[in-house]
Specification:
The chain is mostly helical. The chain is about 65% helix and about 0% strand. The termini are far apart.
Length: about 400
């Protein structure tokens, strides 16, 4: 048996209490049945059960009451689905559908209960012998089936959690790609904290998987246990803080995405005249039913370029597909289609090309005038120097500083 560690027990109690409180809060704060917070509440509640399970072991309660062994394990199979659907609905709340496809994600706890049913029926004396790793254990079929169920469950749990961590990360990456269809600056709209959460949970997964499959040595078991407990508490506080700050994702994105998805049913732009005939030029499947001809497409592109060059809309660091649509009186659907088809890029790249072009002119000093790279970045519409450097190097092959030095040396 392990000697109880006061500070580790305190951390477990603190983490479990925080989970219970925040799960209750997010559950009560959920607005309607489509709120991602319902899944966040579920995730926090189950995460709280992991603290209780660890508390039983750390405080030696599990040895005093062997019937507690493995009692919480089936519920842990809900962690992955709750996390995945929380992130998915944060990035696209319209995806929420409580249908059979979603129910199948919650079948693993039932399977785990079935696998561990024989183990649960073991008498306390037998469970105690297992926990103490005694050598004189029975070799009956009944005992072996119970142990096999526990082993299979211990293998399935880390595999299932890894599966949902990967799926969740892919959702975040896809969300970032979608943002570029709508915004010229994505820093304020990215859900980077979800990516940080995935990384933190992945580290915990690695530690947990190693412990379940191989186990730690006696020298490492205690410090690793303390570290994982503290990281778990950190995850809960981080997730709770971010969950309080972020309601369901950007409504502007949702509206625009729905418009893009239904473009086939919207045949005319806001003020663009009806096309005479639709060219027979093959179109991508996404725009196959669009009424936009090549001539109209070129005309819209010219109008967009004029708005950016003459009105210098690219200088607006809050420029979005919606605001460009409002300025030009062209449907956002057609703006997106023209940019995607004619220029083979997204809205983000389209605007940043104008910004980089303008920055190239400003980086070359005129007389005694000297402007810092950061000032240039802000003046042409970038929100940060790092984003400016990345975009500038992507289109020119040089950083802004390198470009300035090159121009000065060749002058």
């Amino acid at each position: 048996m392990q000697t109880p560690i006061p500070y580790e027990i305190a951390a477990l109690l603190m983490g479990g209490t925080m989970c219970a409180f925040m799960a209750l809060y997010f559950s009560m704060d959920s607005k309607g049945t489509k709120s991602p917070k319902r899944f966040l509440a579920g995730f926090l509640f189950i995460y709280g059960l992991t603290f209780i399970d660890n508390f039983w072991e750390t405080s030696d309660l599990i040895f005093q009451y062997p019937r507690l062994a493995g009692l919480m394990v089936p519920s842990f199979f809900l962690l992955g689905p709750f996390l995945y659907f929380y992130i998915r609905d944060m990035c696209d709340p319209e995806s929420y559908k409580l249908d059979r496809k979603r129910y199948r994600h919650f079948i693993m706890p039932v399977i785990a209960v079935v696998l561990m049913m024989t183990f649960y029926s073991f008498p306390d004396t037998l469970k105690f012998s297992l926990l103490m790793e005694e050598e004189d254990l029975p070799e009956t079929g009944y005992f072996l089936i119970g142990v096999l169920g526990v082993v299979l469950t211990q293998i399935m749990l880390p595999v299932q959690i890894l599966y949902y961590l990967v799926k969740s990360y892919r959702i975040i990456r896809r969300h970032f790609t979608t943002l570029k269809q709508f915004f010229a600056n994505v820093e304020d709209h990215k859900l980077d904290w979800l990516r940080v959460l995935i990384i933190m949970l992945s580290i915990q997964w690695l530690l947990y998987a190693f412990d379940q499959l191989f186990g730690w040595s006696d020298a490492l078991s205690e410090p690793i246990g303390t570290i994982t407990t503290l990281v778990d508490v950190g995850i809960i506080y981080f997730l709770s803080f971010k969950g309080l700050r972020h309601d369901a994702v950007l409504r502007e994105e949702e509206s625009l995405q729905r418009q893009l998805d239904t473009i086939a049913d919207q045949q005319h732009p806001k003020t663009e005249p009806e096309t005479e005939t639709t060219r027979e030029t093959p179109q991508p499947a996404k725009y196959a039913k669009s009424a936009l001809s090549d001539a109209d497409s070129e005309r819209i592109l010219h109008k967009l370029q004029q708005a950016l060059e003459l009105d210098q809309l690219y200088k607006d660091n809050m420029l979005s597909l919606r605001s460009l649509s409002d300025h030009t009186r062209i449907s956002p659907n057609y703006i997106s289609q023209v940019i995607n088809q004619n220029l083979n890029c997204n809205f983000f790249d389209f605007i940043n090309k104008f910004r980089v072009r303008a920055a190239q002119e400003k980086l070359v000093p005129k007389g005694d005038e000297k402007i810092s790279v950061l000032d240039v970045a802000h003046e042409v519409g970038f929100n940060s120097k790092s984003t400016f450097n990345t975009a500038f190097k992507r289109y020119t092959g040089l950083t802004p500083t390198q470009y300035r030095k090159q121009q000065q040396s060749s002058a």
